[in-house]
Amino acid sequence: MSKVEEKLFENRYRVDEGRPHIAIINADVCEGKCTAKQCTYCCPAACYALEDGKVVLTTDGCLECGTCRVICDDHFNIEWSYPRGGFGILYKFG
Amino acid sequence: MAEKFDAIVVGAGPAGNSAAIVLARAGLKVLQLERGEYPGSKNVQGAILYAEALEQVIPNCRRQAPLERPIIEQRMWVLDDETYVGSNYRGVKKKDEPPTRYTVIRANVDRWMSKKATDAGVLLICEATVLDLIKQDGKVVGVRTDRVGGDIFADVVVLADGVNSLIATKAGLRPTIKAADVALAVKEMHFLPKEVIEQRFNIANDEGVVIEMFGKITKGMMGTAFLYTNRESIALGIGCMADDFKKGGITPYDMLDEMKKHPAIKPLIAGSEVKEYSAHLIPEGGYKAIPQVHGDGWVICGDSGGFVNAVHREGSNLAMASGRMAAETIIKLKEEGKPCTAPHLAAYRAALESSFVMKDLKKYKEMPEIFHANPQFFTTYPELLNKAAATMLKVDNVDKKTKQKEIAGEFVKRRSYLGMLGDAIKLVRSFR
Predict the structure, then answer these.
(1) How far apart are CA B366 and CA B369, in angstroms?
(2) In chain B, which residues have their Cβ closer than 8 Å to the Cβ of A4?
(3) Which of B246, B276, B279 sits opposite A10 (nearest CB)?
(4) In terms of Cα–Cα distance, which of B281, B327, B284, B330 is closest to B307?
(5) Among partner residues A3, A44, A82, which is closest to B279 by beta-carbon distance?
(6) What is the mean pLDDT of residues A60-82?
(7) Would you say B139 and B308 are in contact if contact means Cβ atoms under 8 Å apart?
(8) Is the N end or the C end of chain A the one with fewer CB atoms within 10 Å?
(9) Interior CA angle at B319 toward B316 and B325, to 5°?
């Protein structure tokens, strides 16, 4: 388990299976046009992974902060919304 | 036609709860929508509660609120890689003067405040994410959610939906928040026995300590860190501007882990059990980044309005005050039989302007840009200050005047006379 996974392991989630609330609009833009791929190092939950030059998004550990939405401002390639009511992170302390 | 309310409040944080409580106590029919399982389950804060702002919403709040510790001591640390220079203020508790700042656990406070709202008659629906505003002839007349069947209508919608302000953005009422105007903060909750916390921080049963930190720990990014003592836990967090994180160098979680290794911080959290890791954006763009806060049938409160005083680490008090002022504006219009149109709701903006909310934001309106463009305040100066302290405090048979010269020389070498003069002017412009 990576360090950030260990952190996320302490949190409570109710994952909306099969209904991710964030989506990459066009994967080719991430792979071909975006050089920095800042989502892969800015996301505090490491939801964005770099695999063979492609950006792979897994929203299960998302903390719903909105960082990826605001830092993807070169290509605006993220479609961002909150999870359905009741789903997602459930902070015990906040 | 679906059921109609006097007001719909979106969000059950400090701003939304304050607005809902004040509205309902005046007899208005209020619907409050919260996307979390319970109020607080989506909310993140350090957290410090500012009692005087809450007192104006819930009188006698200190006796009832789930408070952790009143803050008796404030420590300010300027950190180099392994050292820090700091200053402390330690007050005393006075009988006739209750404390104004308390550490709190945010989820507990939100739930408690929300109970006050429902007790006052607010209809609260949780697990309901608001998707869109409903507009009629340019006026906001209701909301569409993913949960409640059909559309819901109201005379006014109070948007207290948090920093991302997604609903207003989608409706075209404001631009998308910018990476340069928000800080990304990450936090861990470290649990320790109560007695251990009290020994480590030199405090009694009902006393708390706050440590605010800045310097090399943010790796040249514009940011700060904090440590707050709760009753049986320590909240430890660090945050930097999102566009600084974008430039790269270190991930937020690695920055937090590096901070935990600092020799001054490590012993304070030693042996603790981490029970939660959170992340949140903080609107730190200040006065210049505040969007339009009212329009036909809508007002914006709290973080969604960018009401955060980054210099003083205040936000929840601005949130509660703005929620209360929005509610008071709506109540007055209702009493006068006036509709919630943009010209009438301008009274909300005026109330904000004449209060500490906008006055404080205006005072520091230059600060975000200046600090953003001058990383030396987070790197070079903390380093120089720490070295100066180390040089002066080292007793090594060298005379003090020589040491003084060495320190001054180091400052000039790193920043130059002109550079330091410029930095001094920038500081004055930031804080005057």
Answers:
(1) 6
(2) 251, 253
(3) B276
(4) B284
(5) A44
(6) 97
(7) no
(8) N
(9) 145
A93 with B36: Cβ contact below 8 A: no
B234 alpha-carbon distance from chain centroid: 17
pLDDT in tens, B308-351: 999 999 999 999 999 999 999 999 999 999 999 999 999 999 99
Which one of A82, A92, A94 has the shortest CB-CB distance to B129? A82
CATH architecture of A3-90: 2-Layer Sandwich (3.30)
Q: Are B160 and B39 in contact (CB under 8 A)?
A: no
Q: What pLDDT does B189 receive?
A: 98
Tokens 């404030």, residue located: B74
Cα separation of B100 and B52, whole Å? 6
User: How far is it, in rounded angstroms, from Cα B98 to Cα B96?
Assistant: 6
A82 and B163: CB-CB below 8 Å?
no
Residue ranges per structural domain of chain A = 3-90
Model confidence at A2, pLDDT cuts 50, 70, 90, reads: confident
pLDDT of residue B148: 64
Please report the beta strands in B101-245, taking only residues with DSSP state E, as ranges in sequence order.
101-104, 123-125, 130-136, 139-145, 151-159, 182-191, 208-215, 223-229, 233-241
Q: Do A67 and B279 touch (CB under 8 A)?
A: yes
Pairing of strands A88-90, A12-14: antiparallel
Please state, in angstroms and rounded to a whole number, the distance separating the CA atoms of residues B31 and B158. Answer: 10
